[in-house]
Specification:
- The C terminus is likely disordered.
- The chain is globular, with a radius of gyration of 23 Å.
- It contains eleven helices and no strands.
- Helix 7 runs antiparallel to helix 8.
- It is mainly alpha-helical.
């Protein structure tokens, strides 16, 4: 490897495989999840990034293709969040928090012209914001629904005191769901001290000054905070209204009735 270019070769492939195996092995050894999930995620990332690397040049040459790519990212984010929260059938309203957070932020950035109006800038920016909204929606939805399930007695007590169903649900699930903002808050608070995020490094490697790189990263981080705050608030509201639900629990089939010896099946 020379300069800022990563050399893709046998050593690169070996390091990727080794890291994936270490992650899966640790998960399996300490039983902190499904080891297959680590391997699958690594394999999917490899295939998806390889595909994107092949088509991204063509996409960035056309505004229509760029918009189509952003819509595709939005659709994938919705499906991912829905399946994490429940199922695609019960979790499809997850598309609303993601859209409510991302669309106004992207529109503001474009209208204010604080970012260059080019596909090369708009596409990755939209991707970062969609990814943040997806994560916030998933975490808020799962935590809100888990809290309602584990503290159902408190929810019932709220109803007994005369609260509306929505208000009783909000009292129970809102504090837990608010924790979905912790990753974005910590990332923003520690930027430059703990991490140098991708936008900063990318702009810097693209030839911009450190001041310009810092300004670009600050804009992305603050936009992410706004996007994820909107996504969390909208998710909690959907859960409280009963529009965003977890998957219905599976009911085990009744065991077959016992038969006396010799009784025909």
């Amino acid at each position: 490897m020379s300069g800022t270019v990563i050399s893709v070769g046998p050593a690169y492939a070996g390091v990727l495989v080794l890291l994936a195996l270490v992650g899966a092995g640790v998960v399996a050894w300490f039983r902190v999840g499904a080891p297959g999930g680590v391997a699958t995620a690594a394999a999917r990332a490899t295939v998806q990034l390889a595909t994107v690397s092949l088509v991204i040049v063509a996409v960035l040459r056309s505004w229509w293709l760029t918009v189509a790519f952003v819509v595709a990212m939005y659709a994938v984010a919705t499906v991912t969040a829905a399946r994490r929260i429940g199922t695609l059938r019960t979790g499809w309203p997850a598309m609303l928090p993601i859209g409510l957070g991302v669309l106004p932020a992207v529109a503001l950035l474009l209208v204010a012209r604080v970012l260059p109006l080019t596909p090369l800038v708009v596409l990755p920016t939209a991707g970062i914001l969609i990814g943040g909204a997806m994560t916030a929606t998933t975490l808020a939805g799962k935590r809100a629904l888990d809290e309602l399930r584990s503290r159902h007695g408190e929810y019932e007590a709220g109803l007994a005191l005369g609260l509306l169903e929505r208000d009783a649900a909000l009292e129970v699930c809102r504090p837990a769901a608010s924790q979905a903002l912790i990753p974005a808050l910590d990332q923003t608070r520690t930027v430059g001290l703990v991490t140098l995020p991708g936008a900063f490094v990318g702009v810097l490697l693209g030839g911009a000054s450190p001041i310009q790189a810092g300004a670009a990263q600050l804009l992305i981080l603050v936009a992410l905070l706004a996007v994820e705050a909107i996504a969390v608030a909208a998710t909690v509201e959907l859960v409280a209204q009963g529009r965003l639900r977890a998957a219905a629990p599976r009911v085990a089939p009744d065991p077959p009735a016992a038969r006396s010896p010799g009784q025909p099946a």
